[in-house]
Design brief:
heterodimer; A: about 200 residues; alpha+beta; about 55% helix; B: about 240 residues; mainly alpha; two-stranded antiparallel sheet; about 65% helix; globular
Chain lengths: ~200, ~240
């Protein structure tokens, strides 16, 4: 079950790529270093203040993710069956879910070191995997891969794989089951309930 | 806990077959997941494991985590990690990965001596990376398919192949076979509590991220195993859309 820990650490460092035409790996490095630097100096985040972590995520991370693509990929074949309003709601709810998850994971950061792997990319490619590794003392390094796509002149993340576990693939199975059992509205309701209950839980802290 | 001998393997396979039949009958009512044919059974075991964890294991791990300073906990992890390196070396050998096996043997040699019985992990600093191998992965490497997803009591997520691998893992593990009973029990408990403590941050993550804890863990586990067997270079699965 150790890979679960990998997911925590992976999501901590799953900050993304900013909007300039620089090589995606150099961008991953600069933004990751930036966010980690902030966390290292912020005792409140380190001691579990999820609200502060959410603020950090919204400021530094969200602009670089393509949530529509992520929601569409996670919902899979059923996306085409959804109305535009449903698609918008799905994207918004999925985004809330991910923001909360990242923020919770950020509070678990404990000074791990990130190793950036050489980028394997053909010139002119519009979709690339950026590979990094999180070093941990006494344990195997955790693989963290970002799948990024070029939209206009910005690179945006649309999938993260921690120790080989793709976020989108993981959610796709869950979402498909939800749609099978309760239709698209059933999935929307599950996401809304989840976001509401977790939000209330956080407010109590 | 688990008696030695090849009859255990036969017993597990018989149990799995019986359970699979029972599970299939239960699964007929809903759309069965092809990777999880005995989902009904698995969910029941998962619920059981979860309740034992909530009632007993997690509180002990939280107590351990709060009471001990980080260097001590690292030392504990390193100590058991060092013992495991021998067995990881054996698995790398069985998989034909000779340089990795040699590196694991080197880790054990260095950490057991200079690292004071493995408490200090100098080998990693010297560039000998820690690997993660077990018999389930070795069988996977030899071409044995996953088999059905299986949740084992106490041990948690597994597959038919990895469950069998676990039997071999336990046989090869020196800690449960240590002659001095009191020391053995202490070592097993400390190792178990320490491992659970390292997973505490993951609890929070799962609570936030998962719509359905059971399927989230299952799908993550299956992807993770595939990645481990290929040592990080699994062939990319093509996106459905």
């Amino acid at each position: 079950m150790k890979w679960l820990l990998g997911m925590v650490l992976g999501l901590v460092l799953a900050t993304a790529v900013s909007a300039q035409e620089i090589a995606p790996d150099a961008l991953v490095k600069s933004v990751t270093d930036d966010v980690l630097d902030i966390i290292r100096k912020d005792k409140e985040i380190q001691s579990g203040n999820t609200k502060k972590a959410i603020e950090l995520v919204e400021a530094k991370v969200l602009p670089h993710f393509n949530f529509i693509h992520m929601a569409r990929a996670a919902v899979g074949r059923n996306w085409a069956k959804a109305t535009p309003e449903q698609q918008k709601t799905l994207t918004d709810e999925f985004r809330s879910l991910l923001v909360r998850t990242y923020s919770a994971a950020l509070t678990g950061y404990k000074n791990q070191v990130v190793d950036y792997k050489p980028l394997k990319m053909q010139p002119g490619e519009a979709e690339v995997v950026v590979r990094t590794e999180i070093k941990q003392p006494g344990a195997k390094a955790i693989q963290l891969d970002y799948t990024v796509e070029l939209i206009g002149s910005s690179w945006k993340v649309f999938d993260i794989a921690v120790s080989g576990v793709s976020l989108i693939t993981n959610y796709r199975t869950e979402f498909t089951t939800q749609v099978t059992q309760g239709g698209i509205d059933g999935l929307i309701k599950s996401l809304q309930d989840k976001n509401k209950s977790a939000g209330e839980g956080a407010a109590k802290k | 806990m688990i008696p030695a001998g090849k009859t255990v393997v036969q017993r597990i396979l018989t149990l799995a077959h019986a359970v699979a039949m029972a599970g299939l009958l239960g699964a007929c009512a809903t759309t069965a997941n092809p990777k999880d044919p005995i989902e009904g059974f698995n969910r029941a075991v998962f619920a059981f494991n979860d309740s034992v964890d909530t009632a007993i294991i997690r509180p002990v791990a939280v107590g351990y985590d709060t009471a001990l300073p980080t260097p001590v906990k690292s030392g504990v992890s390193n100590f058991f990690g060092n013992i495991a390196d021998v067995f990881i070396a054996v698995n790398n050998l069985l998989q034909g990965k000779l340089p990795d096996a040699a590196s694991d043997a080197g880790r054990f040699a260095i950490n057991s001596t200079v690292g004071v019985l493995g408490i200090f992990d100098w080998a990693t600093d010297l560039g000998l990376e820690k690997h993660d191998e077990d018999f389930g992965q070795t069988f996977g490497r030899w071409g044995v398919g996953d088999g059905a997803y299986l949740v084992l009591p106490f041990f948690g997520p597994s597959t038919l192949r990895d469950g069998v691998g676990l039997v071999f893992d336990v046989k090869a593990d020196p800690v449960p076979h240590y002659k001095h009973v009191a020391a053995r029990n202490t070592l097993l408990t400390v190792r178990g509590v320490n491992e659970r403590a390292t997973l505490l941050p993951a609890d929070k993550l799962i609570a936030e991220a998962a719509l359905d804890k059971y399927s989230y863990i299952r799908d993550g586990y299956l992807q993770r195993r595939r990645n481990k067997i290929y040592d990080g270079n699994a062939p990319r699965v093509v996106d459905e859309d």
